[in-house]
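Let's practice the habit of predicting before peeking. Look at the sequence and jot down your guess about where helices and strands might fall. Then scroll down.
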Amino acid sequence: MSTPLSPDYQNGNVSFWRRTLEAAGSRPALPGDATADVVIVGGGYTGMWTAFYLKQQAPDMRIVVLESETVGYGASGRNGGWLSGEFGGSQEKYAAESSPAAVSRMQAHLVASIDEVITIAGERGIDAEIAHDGLVYVATTLSQAKRLQHKEAHQRAWGRTPDDFRILSPNDGRPVNVHGATAFGFSPHGARINPAKLVAGLAREVEAMGVRIYEHTPVTEVQQGGVMTTRSRVRAETVLIATEGFTAGLPGRRRDWLPMNSVMIVTEPLSDAAWSEIDWRGDVLLGSIGHVFMYAQRTPDGRIAIGGRGNPYRFGSKTDTNAMARPEDVDALWKQLTTFFPAVRDSKVAHSWCGTLGVARDWCATVAFDPSTGIGHSGGYAGHGVALAHLGGRTLAELVLGEQTERTALPLVNRRIRKWEPEPLRWIGAQLIYGLYRQADRRELHGSARSSFLGTAADRISGR
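Done guessing? Here is the structure:
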């Protein structure tokens, strides 16, 4: 590994965010057979928001949440801390099954989720280090600048205004001093969060509302009328699957959502001189417009946390071991970070980790509930899960309760999941796709003013 590491460097063990929790203890496992009205499989954002809204509307409902590890062990405790209104999936694909107006309503509800999460966190005393300063996309090549223009035109085509997204003019100034930047796009619909503090706070709240959460309780089978775990059974009329990127571990669901992997690093606190050179205005989120997506935030204690797609997929839909990142992926992120911000080169990496996110075959999220079986699910957020999990969890709760709302009529509701190809085709396809994305970025970096056809080819193969 060529990346400079701090003396207390840590790789894995969930994430840096988890290290910031005051008390990261664990809850007991399910002690024996149990009965509930609703059993939720998965202790992340989706499970917690579903439980929250069910209890809010039906306080007497008996709800059990089962988590195979600890609350927030998955993407909810490892993500980049982007609470954003970015769309998960293709508007065109959603519209083909509904209408453009319905897609616009879904976008509006997704943006509304940002304010709802912030409001609930404030009302419930959840200190998730939230800063609602928006998000910025940076282009560092001519081809990326053209893609940024395409993104703006695409937003306008779907009825979004400059108040939703716009390319910044020279008069706006640079929101952050990225080396080699050619253009910036800005959206106010983004807030920085500490993801682990948010999910931990939500867990405390739903427990206070009467929800029972059991950790270290892997579910081995989902059935109509309940679930089986490694040690016992929970009988429940309603069973909700909220495992997202870890869904492949459930019998019969290996090909529902592809467990795509992402890697993050966080620096030591940077010096005042480094921050002066970087000139990061406020706590705006930062993302790239490259084919291999990069996302970053400035932490409250003066670090930069940056992530991107590392080893994208493990054969057989396997997930990580203790969230440990590969050295070569850490090196790639360090190179990206120091290319953007040369002033960071005098710092070191304090923590690295990886996470797993769920991707549907068409890259579109789904919330579904079948009243005849009592089984439902929400997931396939494709890396935009902080706000989408809130929208998904709230919608899933309304479906369970039989409510008819604007949310239960959105295009993501009750979509059929097209299964991914069997192995080894899944693995070959994932390696090919991200190989093409990386090669496309390399070609564009060397001066091509046009967006590489390799990126377009990868999009078509992946189903995006």
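How did you do? The radius of gyration is 21 Å.
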